[in-house]
Amino acid sequence: MLSWEGIDLRLDPSSPSWPRLIRALQEASVEATEALRKRNRGDVVPTPEAPCIVAESAQDAPLLSTAIKLWSDEKSRGAWSPKVRDDHLAWTDLFIEIAGDRPITTYRKEDARAFKSVLMKLPANSRKKRETRGLPANVAAEKAERLGLEPMSASTVNKALNRVGAFWNWAEGHFDDLPTGLMKGLKIKTAVSPRDQRDAFALAQMQKLFSSPLFTACRSERYCSEPGLHLMTETARFWLPLLGLFTGARLNELCQLATDDVREEAGIAYLDITNEGEGQSVKTNSGKRRIPIHSQLISLGFNAFVSRRRTERSHRLFPEMRKDASGYYSGNFSKFFSRYLERIGVKTAKTSFHSFRHNFEDACRNGEVPSNIMDALQGHAERGMAGRYGDGRYRIDLLKENIERVEYPGLDLSKAVKFQRD
Fold first, then answer.
1. pTM of this prediction?
2. Which of 51, 232, 293, 331 would give a disulfide with 238, using CB separation of 3.0 to 4.6 Å?
């Protein structure tokens, strides 16, 4: 009956509309039985006009594009950076392209399955590839499959499903009569754990990196992978990898540091990772934290480097870092660092600047740093009920004691030059 007039209004079994539907069918059955009884008795019973079947919920529900705009505006007021917003909207726009822009109450599981089916065939960067550029997504997917183009990775498909699923999870709490769990169960099971998606740098890789011209002396800033007499100790290129190794901080957290974010308490210098400065952001609320400066960084002259920046009245610790089109300071450096690793023969498919976080966590584990202190240093949310109470801050001396347990046995930094103030 729900498919009369060609209108597909199948209900999810968990929909709150089921009781209303059953009641309406019962009432209609009683009414029809009474009409038949009267006709059989000889009474005149008018034939009702065929109704125009339009779902009440669909009449009042906004279009998907309108709902996504509301979602995006809300998230962008707090949790999202411009880069995160654009990433989410790219995938929801693709969902609209594939499933159409309709009232949000009319979408069903088959729309989600159709979206996944196209994703499974689309190649990575399909809008840039010569064979699929300019084509609608479903046409591009079919052509890519026909030509045998390599489809996007399972992790990218899962990322797209997560992004679109995040919208539908939000929508379920903001609109009535929506299908529940629209994207549930569609993720691809992969044999690779999140930990295995990136590798820590091996000892030999780290030794080769920190003995390379960038940290000893190079031909010039432009040709920093070639040996020479030029020192890089006043640049972000020199300090960011060392900071990554001995703080475990994310690249953008380091690139955006203000000079005043290097602070001191009880005689202990530390980095204040925050989102309070202009253009600053953290991945999560737990990302706001204090990281004491490791003694290895001090011995390489980091405190003296910060003092130089203060003398120069530089607002930012690394003023040469510029925001990219996504609004992040880290984008350009990330590309540079990958190229540099390739030039010195250290790059692998699963190593990048983020590998330093893996190295740092392994070093914390091997140094028997308690897991709650590891979380505090790396900006992870505290686990269990403890994360709900108190201000979450640890004494700076306790953090300093534990960060000094971070060691890299066998790593010789003696070839790296030290920063010297004039």
1. 0.66
2. 232
